């Protein structure tokens, strides 16, 4: 290993990682397998790749090219040198708009490519559900398909050529035509075409006659008469086992505009499957299945709950989403009418009962279409959001049969599952007869592993009976490669091996996939091996909603199924640190994998409290984006608290963390000498001198202590109390004008409000968040106890508890229930509201009279991460909509980057600035002078004010300005 590290470091520019923590983060993909790689390289150039192949060949070390690491079948795990193309090797090399083609590096993500193509009216239409993180290289290696393949074809149909490096280090252009100037390539081409001619009859007899066939190698591309013969298509679907693709030429299509969606409701699953063969006659661009299990699970996920209510009528057992792109609204409307007529012809009516109930919900609104598409794309991961030990397992999940056989085939699968005491979760590309079905199993149990094997054997026998494809979309990997002989016969398997030997004679590239595979149920290759286990340990927070050791913490960590949704680079919040660094380490998935390996002892003793674990968590800004946006609900912000608490208990905390954590305790005294406390900001030399001992960067001004902090006795209730105000430490001591503005607005609306005061002692109340950020859980719990104790009498009377700072008020709903589980805490959490939530809920209250005028022609709104994660941004927008003559525009951005004390750290402030530059800071700079910028978060306002010419305000101050 040392020799490998030295040789790689001497010859490559890219990042070389051979430590256990880094290798562990690449040991899994979205399958249930785990194989520890020998090392990881993030190449920056072709020269890096050539050097790595050369060194690996000499040292007889396998090479594994890797994209987003989202493979379902174990294609992207191996005991090899992993080359991660996503960090650097990800650009567009050539774009030919006129001829609708482009050439890209393999590491470019599909969504990023399409964002670059959109201004030119073009797109790449192989729209896989993992488009936000799937790379073109990975899609090529997998022969990906997507939901619109019936219209646009699969990856193979849209790859024109590939530049690739063979195991001997030679570079070749794989495509149409012959290159006699390259004798090695010409000889390779001759050999492969001879194989195609020799095996033409066997290929015709053995390859299934379905569109969705991605199993084995595409040697049908070598058969005479295939015009034109394109050797690139042999590399498509080869899962990195034949060559290393360095540049991929793609066929592009005109951008789609004007879609229509018909949501067909069915009373039974069988009827939906039977109807698919009829609905495709209308020539839609896709027909997608959503079953009742997915509907129920989506309803339990905050991100999707509202969307489900918008498009699901009644209680269907299955939906078929039928999408049309006819070019204009009138033609789309005609298709929807024809769809409704066809559903009627099939015997379904909204007025019907039993098996006659059903119909079409037309969806023409582009926004709702997008939300439905997002739900559908997250389908497989929604299925994985079950918190039980048993999970839907991917191993027979994307077989494909011809449409007339689909209903009977699914009935046969259901019978197999029931025979083995389980059930399947269903999700499908019904238009092409390709099913995503996952039996629910617990692969930590020997019995369930045996059951998986039996189900696989029986399901593939069923597929063969219907002359279908056992691998219809997600490839072969470890799961399906061993079944090639059952599906194709021994002669075809020998052909695959001949192709592998001709291109990669020494088995350098990703061995054990497609040819010479291990058994799919070899538990030594599983994520959860027979010896896997987590020793019990005491946790700081309540994890009882999950199974497993450490009070359920194990189960919470294991909720990460490696789907990689956190790798998205645009939209939503998560994962802001990854968007800056592009490193697997700085990713929700990477952190979750590191936690799982650490608590199960796979990274050595004391890994949970190690420096490496601290480094893994270092750039997590606790934005809670993952809590809302991760399809399986991984809450890394809460998990980080556990890590910090354990580390603080073992190693203590730094001066920096002590200054941050104990702020609410010393703030009472510091606020009495604001001139002294603010001196650091006015004297640059003092800031530089204090930088090392305090850990606060001299490049930023710290929050300014106010000369007149907020006092609880400033507010006196006028009559019976109708609301209570929680004055948080940040607004109390640094921006008291926000609390005073909130009181004025509430009083102007006729609300009798008072400030909650401690029942014990005189020190003001605090939520404990600063202590949590430093890992001081006992201190945080003490603060939480004081706060809950003081708020409980109000909550019991049903009095709303109002707060201004999202990170503080929303702690009452999130972290405090995990610190202090119990009825009183739950009651307080139920009544805790953001200022704008309270106002939005008074819409139909005649006693709430708030008369407002427009304070500005336009308001630019930035949402705090916790507002987004806890889904309270809509309340802010509803409140601002009361300003009838003011245009409201929301900044679409991830975390602002300040994130409490994160932006002030010596070693984190630069990352903080880069986060801000990804969205909020450019938007603030571009705002017109008469536009008011609103941001509820203290950190958000400081980030904007520090780095732009603008000074944002809290929404309470905006409403105060608008009071008549």
Automatic annotation (TrEMBL):
Cofactor(s) listed: FAD
Organism superkingdom: Bacteria
Domain FAD-binding PCMH-type as annotated: residue spans: 33-255
InterPro entries referenced in this protein's UniProt entry, alphabetically: 4Fe4S_Fe-S-bd (IPR017896), 4Fe4S_Fe_S_CS (IPR017900), Cys_rich_dom (IPR004017), FAD-bd_oxidored_4_C (IPR004113), FAD-bd_PCMH (IPR016166), FAD-bd_PCMH-like_sf (IPR036318), FAD-bd_PCMH_sub2 (IPR016169), FAD-linked_Oxase-like_C (IPR016164)
The entry's keywords: FAD, Flavoprotein, Iron, Iron-sulfur, Metal-binding, Oxidoreductase
Full protein name: FAD-binding and (Fe-S)-binding domain-containing protein
């Amino acid at each position: 290993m040392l020799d490998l590290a030295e040789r790689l470091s001497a010859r490559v520019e890219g990042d070389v990682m051979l430590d256990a923590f880094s290798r562990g983060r690449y040991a899994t993909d979205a399958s249930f397998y785990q194989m520890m790689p020998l090392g990881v390289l993030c190449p920056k150039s072709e020269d890096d790749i050539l050097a790595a192949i050369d060194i690996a060949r000499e040292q007889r070390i396998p090479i594994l090219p890797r994209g987003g690491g989202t493979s379902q079948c174990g294609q992207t795990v191996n005991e090899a040198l992993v080359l991660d193309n996503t960090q650097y090797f990800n650009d567009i090399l050539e774009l030919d708009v006129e001829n609708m083609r482009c050439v890209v590096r393999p590491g470019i993500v599909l969504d990023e490519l399409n964002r670059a193509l959109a201004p030119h009216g073009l797109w790449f239409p192989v729209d896989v559900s993992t488009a936000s993180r799937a790379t073109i290289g990975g899609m090529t290696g997998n022969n990906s398909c997507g939901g619109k393949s019936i219209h646009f074809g699969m990856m193979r149909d849209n790859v024109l050529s590939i530049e690739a490096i063979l195991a001997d280090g030679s570079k070749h252009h794989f495509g149409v035509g012959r290159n006699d100037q390259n004798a090695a390539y010409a000889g390779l081409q001759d050999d492969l075409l001879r194989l195609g001619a020799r095996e033409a009859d066997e290929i015709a007899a053995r390859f299934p006659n379905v569109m969705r066939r991605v199993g084995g190698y595409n040697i049908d591309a070598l058969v005479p008469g295939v015009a034109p013969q394109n050797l690139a298509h042999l590399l498509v679907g080869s899962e990195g086992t034949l060559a290393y693709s360095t540049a991929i030429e793609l066929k592009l299509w005109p951008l789609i505009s004007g879609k229509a969606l018909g949501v067909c409701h069915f009373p039974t699953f069988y009827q939906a499957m039977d109807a698919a063969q009829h609905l495709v006659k209308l020539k839609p661009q896709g027909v997608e299945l959503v079953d009742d299990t997915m509907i129920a699970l989506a309803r339990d996920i905050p991100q999707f709950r509202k969307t489900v209510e918008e498009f699901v009528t009644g209680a269907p057992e299955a939906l078929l989403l039928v999408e049309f792109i006819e070019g204009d609204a009138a033609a789309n409307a005609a298709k929807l009418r024809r769809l409704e007529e066809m559903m009627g012809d099939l015997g379904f009516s909204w007025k019907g009962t039993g098996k006659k109930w059903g119909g079409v919900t037309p969806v023409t609104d582009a926004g709702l279409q997008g939300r439905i598409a997002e739900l559908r794309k997250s389908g497989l991961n929604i299925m994985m959001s079950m918190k039980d030990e048993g999970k839907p397992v991917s191993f027979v999940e994307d077989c494909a049969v011809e449409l007339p056989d689909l209903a009977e085939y699914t009935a046969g699968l259901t019978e197999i599952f029931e025979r083995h005491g389980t059930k399947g979760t269903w999700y499908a590309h019904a238009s092409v007869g390709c099913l995503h079905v996952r039996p629910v199993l617990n692969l930590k149990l020997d019995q369930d592993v045996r059951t998986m094997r039996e189900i696989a054997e029986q399901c593939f026998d069923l597929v063969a009976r219907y002359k279908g494809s056992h691998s219809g979309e997600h490839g072969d990997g470890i799961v399906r490669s061993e079944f090639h002989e059952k599906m194709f016969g021994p002669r075809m398997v020998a052909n695959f091996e001949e192709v592998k030997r001709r291109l990669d004679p020494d088995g350098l590239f990703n061995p054990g996939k497609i040819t010479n595979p291990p058994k799919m149920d070899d538990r030594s290759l599983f994520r959860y091996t027979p010896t896997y286990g987590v020793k019990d340990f005491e946790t700081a927070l309540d994890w009882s909603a999950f199974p497993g050791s450490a009070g359920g913490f194990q189960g919470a960590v294991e909720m990460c199924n490696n789907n990689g949704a956190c790798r998205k680079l645009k939209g939503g919040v998560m994962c802001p640190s990854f968007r800056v660094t592009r490193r697997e380490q700085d990713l929700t998935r990477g952190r979750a994998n590191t936690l799982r390996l650490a608590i199960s002892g796979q990274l050595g003793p004391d890994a949970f409290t190690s420096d490496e674990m601290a480094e893994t968590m270092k750039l997590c800004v606790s934005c809670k984006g993952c809590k809302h946006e991760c399809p399986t609900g991984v809450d890394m912000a809460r998990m980080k608290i556990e890590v910090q608490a354990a580390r603080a208990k073992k190693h203590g905390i730094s001066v920096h963390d002590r200054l941050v954590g104990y702020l609410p305790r010393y703030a009472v005294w510091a606020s009495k000498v604001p001139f002294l406390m603010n001196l650091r900001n006015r004297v640059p030399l003092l800031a530089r001198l204090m930088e090392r001992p305090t850990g606060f960067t001299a490049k930023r001004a710290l929050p300014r202590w106010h000369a007149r902090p907020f006092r609880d006795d400033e507010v006196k209730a006028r009559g019976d109390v109708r609301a209570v105000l929680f004055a948080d430490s940040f607004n109390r001591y640094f921006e008291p004008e926000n609390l005073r503005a909130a009181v004025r607005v509430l009083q102007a609306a006729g609300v009798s409000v008072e400030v909650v005061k401690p029942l014990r002692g005189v020190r003001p109340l605090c939520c404990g968040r600063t202590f949590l950020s430093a890992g001081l859980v006992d201190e945080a719990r003490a603060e939480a106890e004081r706060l809950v104790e003081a708020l409980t009498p109000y909550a019991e009377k049903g009095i709303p508890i109002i707060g201004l700072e999202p990170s503080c008020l929303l702690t009452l709903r999130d972290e405090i229930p995990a610190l202090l589980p119990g009825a009183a805490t739950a009651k307080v959490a139920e009544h805790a509201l953001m200022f704008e939530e309270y106002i939005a809920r008074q819409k139909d209250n005649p006693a709430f009279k708030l008369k407002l005028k427009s304070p500005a022609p336009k308001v630019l709104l930035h949402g705090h991460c916790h507002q987004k994660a806890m889904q309270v941004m809509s309340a802010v927008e509803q409140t601002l909509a009361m300003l009838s003559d003011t245009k409201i525009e929301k900044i679409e951005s991830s975390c602002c980057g300040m994130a409490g004390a994160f932006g002030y750290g010596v070693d984190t402030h630069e990352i903080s600035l880069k986060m801000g530059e990804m969205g909020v800071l450019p938007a603030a700079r571009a705002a017109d002078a008469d536009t008011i910028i609103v941001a509820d978060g203290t950190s958000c306002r400081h980030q904007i004010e520090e780095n732009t010419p603008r000074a944002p305000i809290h929404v309470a101050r905006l409403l105060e300005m608008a009071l008549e």
